[in-house]
Every structure is written in C-alpha cells, then in structure tokens.
Amino acid sequence: MTFRMPDDTRQPPAQRAVNRAEMTRRDLLRSGAAVATATLAPGVTLMAFGGSPAEAAGAADAGKRWGLLIDVSKCQDGCTDCITACSEENGWHDTGHPETDAQWIRKVTLKNSATGHTAEMPVMCQHCESPPCVDVCPTGASFKRKDGIVLVDKHICIGCRYCMMACPFKARSFVHEPTVNQKSHAPRGQGTVESCTLCVHRVDKGGTPACVEACAKAGHEAIIFGDLKDPESAISKRLAGYPSVALRPDLDLNPGVRYSNLG
Q: How far is the C-alpha of 90 from the C-alpha of 84, rounded, in Å?
C-alpha cells in the first residue's frame, strides 16, 4: 500500500516533519485495525463490548466503581469453576499451547515461606485506578471507563504488547492463534491483546461477571462483585468490616480487585 504525502514544501522543515510523523502514525493505526478486523468471524465486531472511550462514556456511570473482593479462605484447592465459566462466557479456550494461550483469569498458589501454609486464588485484570497498561499504550487502545473497568479497543490495538510488559499482574494475553467460535458480546482478534473485562456486557445490563456467578453456584461464594463507591453495597460493607489487601500495594495502583484472608 502506498501513502501519498501532502504538498507541504512551503512549510518550515520542522512542521513538515511533524505532519509526516502524524500521517505515518495514522497509517499505522489504520493498517493495524484492518489486520485485526480481518481475523474476526462474520457478524462479529471488535467494538461489541465496552466500545471506544467515546462509546463507553454512554454506558459507564462515573458515580460507580465496579470491583471484586476475593476471600482466599473460601477458594477451594483444585477448583477451576471460575476459569471454566470465564472461558465459556467469553470464547477463549486452551489450544494446547500453555505458553501462548489466553488467560483472562488463572489460579495461582501462594506459599507462606515461614509456616509452609499454601492457598490458591484467582488472578485476573485488577482494573486499577491508575492502570500502567493505559499509561504505556501508544495508540490509546488500552483505556479505563468512567466506572473503573479497564478495556482494550481492538480497532486501534496494534499488538505492540507494551501493556503486557507494563502489567505487574501478568493479566494480559496476546492472541496468537486464529479465533474461532466467536462470541458477539466478547469479540477477539488475532494479533491483539486481551484481558478480563469484568464481563462488561453483563454489568451494563445489571448482571454480574460469569466467574462470580459460577463460584456462587458451586457453593463457595469466594468472589463478591459490586460497586466500591456505594457504602451500602455488599462488597463495601465486607471491605469495611474485614481486613483486605491489594496485590502489589507498593505500586500504589489502587486496584479494583481486593483479597481477604491471604494469611
């Protein structure tokens, strides 16, 4: 593809350089979006969930901040119901390549080096108040909605993976394989980055994330979802009454996901 440069010979050299750099950037974004769109299934659009920052503004309520509270003491060893539910809900799956497979949510094992006590817990995108992924994204594809949910606009994601390197929780995945069995509410595109969306398509309709629902159905109720800004919500009351921690508190990211009973 050939891009025609504008006739800017009458402009100062410095301004001509800026113009050309901006045109190159726009061309790169258009090319990246075209490649990503080409890998989608018929009838599936990348903007189906969350949308761009502009589109998301209509759905998100700045008066809310959605989050999760995970009680590690209730998370059963060996249970993967939350992972299965997320996979089925959002259309990602094990392709047999663990080193490159998508991991919107994963179970990790913690061990207290002093006591030897071990515990399992789920880790997903922490939906930070100050998300590093957003800070490093060169195109604005990584963004945070007004209600705290962090998403990826895959129309302008160029697959640079800067956000993956910046995330201290290793919560983002790069789509290496061609996508199949697409979900219209959770579009995926080969060559783009993805992560937990807090099941934003459910949240915007007044529902709860699939992982929360699956955990409750299994009788564990280890994951609570709710509005962190509402003092009357179940999650806020639990946070006010019991101690909890954020992962990597030293980074001062104020994640929307909290953990209790880690000791």
A: 10
Dihedral angle computed from the Cα positions of residues 97, 102, 106 and 112, in that order, rounded to the nearest 10 degrees: 70
List the structure tokens of 121. Answer: 């817990």
Q: Which two tokens stand for residue 258?
A: 């909290």
| Helices 210-217, 81-90: crossing angle, 10 deg rounding | 140
Would you mind telling me the total number of residues written for the chain in this entry?
A: 263
Q: Are strands 257-260 and 66-71 parallel, antiparallel or unpaired?
A: parallel
pTM over 0.70: yes
pLDDT above 50 (res 84): yes
What domains are there in the chain, each with its CATH number? Answer: 46-260 (3.30.70.20)
DSSP 8-state symbol, 16: H
- Higher-confidence residue of 66 and 30: namely 66
| Residue % of the chain over a pLDDT of 70 | 78
Tokens of 205: 């309709």
Structure tokens at 169: 């929780």
Tokens 């789509």 belong to: 175
User: Mean of the pLDDT values across residues 34-48?
Assistant: 47
Calpha distance 222→60 (Å, rounded): 26
